[in-house]
């Protein structure tokens, strides 16, 4: 026996999405939308999809670093008195693609040394050492950019 669904009833996912989109006054709440997207940590799926731009960016950055900084990794290994020297930047960074992505993006945003110096002075530079640091940085970056995009679309309407 087939049970018919109420055509007026909304699927549970749609209801949740509608709650996120609308604020207390029934207006679109861009802050809630941005927070909701950040909570999903979309960078994780992208980093494990070999065809994604994020994955290719990380792979390329690691390849370049390893190619041109072998002696640096060797010295770093000696400073840490490691029996087996580091073989890659990925190993140094705890084999976390998320950390690599966060570092690469921050360095791309502040491409020049003078920009990094300014960012440090303005407390905008983030020292990314752990997965938590990386996720916080990526979350803040996504939140800021998504909120700005949503507001710019609204102002165009």
Helix content: 55-70%
Sequence stretches where pLDDT stays below 50 over 5 or more residues = 1-7
Shape: elongated
Query: How would you classify the helix and strand content by structural class?
Result: mainly alpha
Number of self-contained structural domains: 1
Q: Measured on Cα atoms, how large is the radius of gyration? A: 21 Å
Q: What's the pLDDT, averaged over the residues?
A: 86
Number of strands: 0
Number of helices: 9
Report the β-strand fraction as a percent range. Answer: under 5%
Give the biggest sheet.
none
Distance between the termini: 48 Å
| Secondary-structure element string | HHHHHHHHH
Helices and strands in order:
Elements: H1 12-21, H2 30-39, H3 42-47, H4 53-68, H5 70-79, H6 89-92, H7 97-109, H8 113-121, H9 131-156
Task: Describe what you observe in this structure.
With 157 residues, this protein is mostly helical. The protein has one domain (25-156). It has helices at residues 12-21, 30-39, 42-47, 53-68, 70-79, 89-92, 97-109, 113-121, 131-156. Helix 4 (53-68) crosses helix 7 (97-109). Residues 1-7 have low confidence and may be disordered.
Question: Notable features of this structure?
Answer:
elongated; 157 residues; mainly alpha
Brief digest:
The chain has 157 residues and is mostly helical.
């Amino acid at each position: 026996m087939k049970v018919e669904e109420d055509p007026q009833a909304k699927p549970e996912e749609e209801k949740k999405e509608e709650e996120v989109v609308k604020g207390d006054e029934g207006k679109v709440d861009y802050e809630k939308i941005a927070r909701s997207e950040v909570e999903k940590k979309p960078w994780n799926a992208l980093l494990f999809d070999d065809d994604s731009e994020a994955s290719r960016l990380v792979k390329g950055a690691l390849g370049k670093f390893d190619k041109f900084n072998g002696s640096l990794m060797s010295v770093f290994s000696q400073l840490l008195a490691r029996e087996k020297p580091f073989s890659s930047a990925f190993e140094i960074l705890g084999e976390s693609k998320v950390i690599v992505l966060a570092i690469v993006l921050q360095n791309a945003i502040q491409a020049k040394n003078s920009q990094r110096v300014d960012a440090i002075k303005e407390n905008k530079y983030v020292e990314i050492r752990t997965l938590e640091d990386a996720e916080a940085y990526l979350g803040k970056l996504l939140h800021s950019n998504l909120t700005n995009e949503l507001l710019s679309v609204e102002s165009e309407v």
